[in-house]
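Lecture 7 notes: from sequence to structure.

We start with a single chain of 336 residues. Read the sequence below before looking at the structure.
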Amino acid sequence: MSYLLANTLVRRLTTIPLVFVSLAIATLLAPLLALVVLAIDVSRLINARRPFMASRMAGFAWVYLLGEAWALLTMTLAGLFGRERSLEMTFFLQRLWTGWNYQALKFFFNLEFEVTGDGEVPPGPILLLSRHASMIDTMLPARFVVRPHGIKLKYVLKKELLVDPALDIGGNRLPNYFVDRGASDSEAERNGIRMLSADLQPDEGVLIYPEGTRYSEEKRIRFTTKLANQPGRVGEVAAGLRRVLPPRPGGTLALLEASEADVVLLMHRGLEGFARAKDIWSGDLIGSTITVEFRRIQRSQIPTEPEGQLNCLFDLWAALDDWVVVGVGPSGESEH
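Now the structure, written as tokens:
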């Protein structure tokens, strides 16, 4: 993996053909695959009373590959135009691609989304801080910030996501930053993040997931244990978190240092327990309602000194934790 991440040419010569070959094989073998997944689903239904998941996941995988192939072709063609035109086209294509995946998820898993606080998002520029609990929540900013409000988001993403070739091509063309979480020079990583929020325009924003990784109960216990004995607000908040991970503050503080933009908090609940594909296999995701809420924090309410900003970030995460617990309970069981 590390070799692929470090070598752009080798990575793309590997991942791009893999998409098209996988799509071709899945399409040619579709009748046989349909019989196999149907047999699996019928067996699970009879033996364990579980809903059809093999067919749903296989269907979503095929639609995802189709969207990936389309995104690769169109984003490659967009790169043939001048830089400014290419950027505009890639922003547009990225929005279509994420919208395609969002609609596929809704269709195959019968998801509903309830959104409140939508009016808190505009105007830009904004620093968008999002909770991270599942692969699915990565689609929420594009669907509920970019599409309805026209805010062009710059993403802070983990470098491992470069193995997705459409994200590799489009994401590297756009002003995003792929963080190397294992880098020995953490200050260089923070400088890369700072550059994203410098000179933000009224139609722009930066998205970061302050937790740095998807939530799981095992991670929460491990991370909060490390921080709980720290003095001050950081340790106090970390010790009390029940349904979110404590934020890793480096990237968020770097954004605050480089920009005077307001902060918008993207909160969501309903995706607990679905961090990975194997979690979705249980079938419990089907028919879920995902609650999304936005809260805007004016920059005048955020301290100017680093320690105050750190405490403010942890206070926001304490409020986020309270909000999640109201909806899903401290154990993760829905209370509604």
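The chain is about 55% helix and 10% strand. Keep this in mind for problem set 3.
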